[in-house]
Amino acid sequence: MVPVSLLYRNWPTGIRLDEQGVRIGAVSSKRAERRSTTVTHQNWAVFSCPWSGVHEMSVVTDRDALKRLRTSPEFHTLSNRWAKPKTMAWCMAGVLVPPFMRAALVIRIDAEVASVPDFGSALFFSNYTDPSDPHFSRRLRPRVGDTWVVPTRHPERLRALIAGSLPVLRG
Q: Tens digits of per-residue pLDDT, 36-45?
């Protein structure tokens, strides 16, 4: 049941590269720009950045690198897990990493230039009791970083596009 719910949470995730810049998330949804969502469903929103704010783009297919993207605290997100890890204090906005991805586009951006949706926080209830932290629940808020990660099913086509025709790399 958990894999089905993670598929539901990650289903609308996509990538659009055009003259204006890069867009990730629910790029094919007409309602995504207006949608109000929480950190648990950030894949249902749209993130955009003009080419002037894109510093670097790369396609990752190495298994160890993908594992690091899924598990590293610097990329903590709720797109790739059912429950919140005990150490997780925030959710990284723009890290749309599902647990089943085989390739990812990693984009280093200028967070001041990028357009990041306003997310609502999510309340998480603990399955454990910790004497040093007696709170029964925690509010998880988004954190905007300088790295976006989005899965791709076509890594070779994306690599060719990045190497050959993107405005950010031609200048």
A: 777 777 877 8
